[in-house]
Please model this.
Amino acid sequence: MHENPRNMTQGQFSFLPPLTDDQIKLQMAYAIKQGWALSVEYTDDPHPRNTYWEMWCQPMFDTKDPAAVMTEVTECRKVYGNMYIRVNAFDNSRWRESVAMSFIVNRPKYEPGLALSRTEGPGRTIQYRVHSYATDKPKGERYK
Amino acid sequence: MATGGAGKKELKGADRYKAGVLEYKVMGYWQPDYVPKDTDVIALFRITPQPGVDADEAAAAVAGESSTATWTVVWTDRLTAAELYRAKAYRVDPVPNAPDQYFAYIAYDMDLFEGDSIANLTASIIGNVFGFKAVKALRLEDMRIPVAYLKTFQGPPTGVMVERERLDKFGRPLLGATTKPKLGLSGRNYGRVVYEALKGGLDFTKDDENINSQPFMHWRDRFLYCMEAVNRASAATAEVKGHYLNVTAGTCEQMIERAEFAKELGSVIIMIDLVLGYSAIQTISKWARRNDMILHLHRAGNSTYSRQKNHGMNFRVICKWMRMAGVDHIHAGTVVGKLEGDPLMVKGFYDTLLQPHTPVAPELGLFFKQEWASLGKCMPVASGGIHLGQMHQLLHYLGEDVILQFGGGTIGHPDGIQAGAEANRVALESMVQARNEGVDYLAKGPEILAKAAKSCKPLQHGLDTWKNITFNYASTDTPDYTPQTTTSR
Amino acid sequence: MTTTPENPTDSFDLEGEFARSNVQAVLDKLDRELIGLRPVKQRIREIAALLLVDKARRSMGLETGAPTLHMSFTGNPGTGKTTVALRMAEILKNLGYVRQGHLVSVTRDDLVGQYIGHTAPKTREVIKKAMGGVLFIDEAYYLYKPENERDYGQEAIEILLQVMENQRDDLVVILAGYANRMEVFFQSNPGFRSRIAHHLDFPDYSDVELFEIAKIMVDAQHYVLTPEAVKVLKEYIPRRMKMPHFANARSMRNAIDRAKLRQANRLFGRKDRTNLTRKDLTTIEAEDLLASRVFQ
Model:
């Protein structure tokens, strides 16, 4: 049977082949044209409810060109090249005031994914716990 | 234009309240000089008067029957501020290209209605009046709800932006599928479809409108198996996933019991059908707000009264009422799928659900300027006969804030359900990518899909299977709009 | 921009490319904005021609690598360096050498922090804002303070040099300031000199040019000089040029601003101020200029 080969598909473009730097810049250019602020974030914990990835830098509110954001991505990859890195675009206009784009621009070489454990309760109910294998290890030793 | 009836003036004082039968016009329900207040509820009806009844009188009759009047004069009117409570027909326009039909504008004082009650509002506006003999047919086309009245309603329990933040999904339409076959699967088999579709790449799966608690699958069984599938898929993809658990039931108590169980199992979303009725919808909406639950509404039953042009009500009014009553998702048309929907009319529905304010736009069927008074946005759902080969059209017509539901288009994939889901996700992501890159994706849609299919076999097989499927039937419900029409009153 | 095209062409329409680029319109605008500056305008034309031919050569596969476009603008204050930089950004955009064409104008204070660790983020922030356009560093020599060996300016210089070398596609840097001080700066920082392709020297304006500049300013603000006032202005200019802190066009703007102030005061002091005419409000008299300290 055909099976989805990926085990971490957060973000807008996770089902496409990894974006090249030029493709990433085109997406950034789109966001800048809409007046959105781009930011770069990284994490070693891909849990779906892990909302707050570490901020690599402040959101770039005044940046006019994708090259500037790409510079930050490149710098971030140098330091955290074996973690997940995503680019977010923030739209501060009224009635949105939220994230407008979010896509992954870097992945660890080996992605162990997430574990599911079950605790059975009364009436056949089950409480589920999803957790990242990576977080079993202390910070700094994950994804080695 | 005021066809006929000229010279018949509104009666005042003692003459007005003499026992007997008067024309509605004469009783004060036709007031061509009335200027609606900002706090008035305004309704626009399409009236087809009985032969021999002039348009003003028909409009006055509708105003009367949907507010204070009865068939004969009653002196007890004089115990009230009757002039205030009377609804006022103030404008009648002929419908372009429909000689026997008229658009009647009727204003209602806000004090005619109880706050935060769709049931009370609709009991007046679409209560007795639709069976009324003076009109051959009657259709409620649009309403203007004043801000002051809107403020008494909760609105969507979650709203589009908070929903996206909870799901952590941005910048693209969401993907869903309805479990098929609609009826007959056991809980165990049903959950299999859910797991495959979610793991394959969809964000949501959905119960169908008529899946409640039948002999082949009782509701608890369905909930338990579906949540096993949702959690397995979430762990497999590191994404938040959901299955719309339909909590529609015979009584409100049963409905709440099912919703509580969904919450206990950790579901992010529940579902109801429009046939629940307005009070039950408001009940579950408030429950959903209290319990951080996204609320999906299937518009089951609406076409019985929304599809025919001369009688019933336009779906955009349902959209307005449901945004007020408070649902997070509502099925609102696909443009290209198997169900009714003219592109402009569908855009009118979508704007009604998503915009903070909508201007007058007759080409979209929006007759009034409507301020939404900070009520949340309601996510439109496109479902019914759409497939991945139409991805460029869907993105173009429906935009980014929409849930695209490919039921058959996922489960019917030749390589299996996961392949179907993956094909849909790849088609969607490649189309969004092309759009953002500035490509003319509407014109080049097929090329973009063909290119994406080179690195995704399931997409190639999906395209081969469905490439020629279209549903090209004329819409029955289209806007009555001639830009040159001169309106008079 | 930097790569050789897959299919080199055999012919290039230089004329058509020039027309499409709208560069002539920018040059015309510059002519209208700035009096004189013949040598500067000539250099700009030459640079535009060079870039256009570069583009043609690249289309035939004759050239690879991004050309160096960093520049230095030297000259006294008020000689039009910022205005020319703005137009240069526009020309570079029209010819496809920068993507956005905006100008970010900074001085040492915008780049250098006061405490350890502050400079690098500040400089990077400025560079990020300027990317896709032109970064204009006025009085660039203040970045380098040899008398203080722990001056943070050095950190900014190193970051700038790196970006000027590695991201020529993304950013054009223009260093500006007095000619003699820039010369000293370049001597002690050879890294800058070697990365700068075009040196533009902005000459001082002649008294005739300054008069023209002042006249354009007066017209633009809807004022009129009386014939006597014209005469006084013509005497004013050579006197002002000899005085300290002379700043070319900027001194003309200041002179006119002060004349406007005196005119307003004069009108306010009039007995019949309840009944001023349009002419009263627009006229600058000789006395409005004669009161200047230049004549004392």
About this structure: Residues 17 and 70 of chain A are 19 Å apart (CA to CA). Residues 21-110 of chain A form a domain with the Ribulose 1,5 Bisphosphate Carboxylase/Oxygenase fold (CATH 3.30.190.10).
